[in-house]
Amino acid sequence: MYQLWGERRWQGLPSPREAQEIWDDIWHQEAHHSTALEGNTLVLREVQALLDQGRAVGAKPLSEYNEVQGYADAARWVYGQALEPDAWHDGRLVTLSEIRHIHHAAMTPVWNVAPHPDASDREGPGNFREHDIAPFTEGMTPPRWPLVPAQVEQWVTEVCALGRLIEESTDPDRPLPEELARIHNQFERVHPFLDGNGRTGRLVMNLVLVRLGYPPIIILKRQRDAYLTALRRADAGDYGTLGELIARAMEDNLNRFIVPNVAGPARMVPLAALVDEELSLAALRQAAQRGRLNAVQGPDGVWRSSRKSVAAYKAAKHQRRPRSTA
Hints:
Strand content: under 5%
CATH superfamily of the largest domain: Fido-like domain
Number of domains: 2
Shape: globular
Order of helices and strands: HHHHHHHHHHEHEEH
InterPro entries: Fido, Fido-like_dom_sf, Fido_containing
Binding site for ATP: 195-202
CATH architecture of the largest domain: Orthogonal Bundle
Strand order of the largest sheet: 1-3-2
Structural class: mainly alpha
Largest sheet: 3 strands, antiparallel
Organism: Kitasatospora xanthocidica
Distance between the termini: 64 Å
Active site: 191
Protein name: Fic family protein
């Protein structure tokens, strides 16, 4: 089963080995935005310095750096499952062990310095909660803690059934983004862990996506209110709004890979899609920030330019090079 996913996945998108800059940019963006949705205050450049150089730039609490690092570690593992699944993977779209593994990877670094104040010894990273959760402000009440293991097992069964439908080229009851909205909302309603359910839920959704042949998605921090509103509507059985948010995020990251290959020379695309042997992503970003490359920075923080503008920048760059002297 996994081989079928792998063939479909890599026929459509380049692997991390073939498009490292694009995958790294998605990784930075996801680690930044998904933790920012939960209140993390690191800005993107601080996230990049932490993940690429291991430097804690700024003066933020240690727990915030650890939160980003843990999320990034878990996201790297998720991305890798599309190409090289762990030896113990049994071929299903997602497993209970993988959900617990993701939570453990994402939460251990922050838990080491700032554990949940109400956690017992059995409720650490990777373990289900043994506390009841008070009703949310919006009215949704997670199930009592003794019911959590069975409800997560049932959730896994439903997700794997969705995977079988797609593998057999059978249309599910709803468009794929709405099916993803449904399963994401159901996971959040169970709220299986004492802390980190939002981060884990988004990571698990991305695990499902990469195994279905799609890139991981990013819910932007500026979309927080819209995302929470969509989750509330999904609580009532309306998955359309959350499905639309997911669909747009899917399209955004698909375009990072696809648009550069089909776009005309003047089409604006993310800088990560314009990297070549001569210019790295860092070099392009620096040129854009200094105004030497014609580029624009969108509200999502991503710089975009075109192949035509990069060609013009290269030509001007070569002209500025001093001639060598004998």
